[in-house]
Design brief:
With 282 residues, this protein is of the alpha/beta class. Helices cover 40% and strands 13% of the residues. The chain is built from 8 helices and 7 strands.
């Protein structure tokens, strides 16, 4: 497979720090750097960068509609950051390629026409996608959710109480910081709640046939070079290429899902396409 750098399977906070020390970050303003830090803090600095999918970026941008910072102002920093991460091998695909700005994020509203009126009619809600996790990861998420609902909410409530006692809230940095932390905490709580509602336990999945599925251990042989590599296909929450764990949503994962021993697959990587043969599936 494509050789990866020391940033492989890194947490997003680690990649952010590497990026901000790089030449690529010099083109960004101090405001851009601050916006990037805000995004990474919202995601959780210890989150695997491989787990940041386009929908997560869009959720963050959507929340900025309720702030004084327009969502589109975050784009330069996010695009530069994820381009750097892909170039360094920390991610296989750039989520920004599929990100769309939320409605009302800066464009002037035109007078409604018959066509736009039809387009604005409510559409059925999109069915939530299954979130594949191991039983251990599910238990960890439940523990995190309980901690956030109790300890973290209580801690921020106390911060707000102390800040309010300082008086004028219009120029109260402690109050603004506490409100920002509260917003990020509640966003994370909603995210974990949603994932748990749609969680599918990998160990409980029924296997049909010999094809690759989430939970499979797959050995691939690069046809050109002849070397072999073994992967464990998991959900985005547990991606860790250093341990051979890849997401079923990654380019490699998408290419091998459903394949059986003996099948050839073509994998598109940042370094170009490569051809592999599925040696075994366990």
């Amino acid at each position: 497979m494509t050789t990866r750098t020391a940033l492989e399977s890194a947490r997003i906070g680690q990649v952010r720090d590497e990026f901000l020390r790089s030449d690529a970050a010099r083109k960004l303003s101090a405001e851009d750097a601050s916006r990037l830090r805000k995004f990474v803090t919202w995601c959780g600095v210890s989150t695997s960068i491989e787990a940041i999918q386009p929908f997560k970026v869009e959720e963050f941008l959507q929340q900025q509609l309720n702030t004084s910072t327009p969502p589109r102002t975050f784009l330069p920093a996010l695009k530069a950051f994820f381009t750097f991460a892909q170039q360094q091998g920390a991610i296989e695909s750039n989520p920004m390629a599929a990100v769309r700005l939320p409605r009302g994020s800066g464009a002037r509203k035109a007078a409604p026409t018959a066509a736009t009126a039809r387009a604005s009619r409510p559409t059925p809600a999109r069915q939530a996608e299954a979130v594949f996790v191991s039983r251990a990861q599910r238990d960890s998420m439940q523990t995190e959710l309980e901690r956030m609902r109790t300890e973290e909410r209580q801690k921020i409530s106390q911060m707000l109480h102390e800040a309010i006692k300082d008086g004028d809230l219009s120029e109260n940095a402690a109050y603004d910081d506490a409100k920002m932390r509260q917003g990020m905490l509640e966003a994370r709580i909603r995210e974990v709640e949603s994932k748990l509602r749609n969680a599918e336990i990998i160990e409980d999945q029924e296997r049909t046939g010999t094809g690759v599925a989430v939970g499979s251990h797959v050995t691939l042989k690069e046809i050109a070079a002849g070397n072999e590599v073994t992967y464990h296909v998991v959900g985005p929450e547990e991606t860790n290429p250093r341990e051979g764990k890849i997401s079923h949503l990654s380019p490699v994962g998408r290419a091998i899902i459903g394949k059986s021993p003996g099948d050839d697959v073509i994998v598109a990587t940042p370094g170009g396409s490569a051809r592999y043969k599925v040696v075994s599936v366990d």
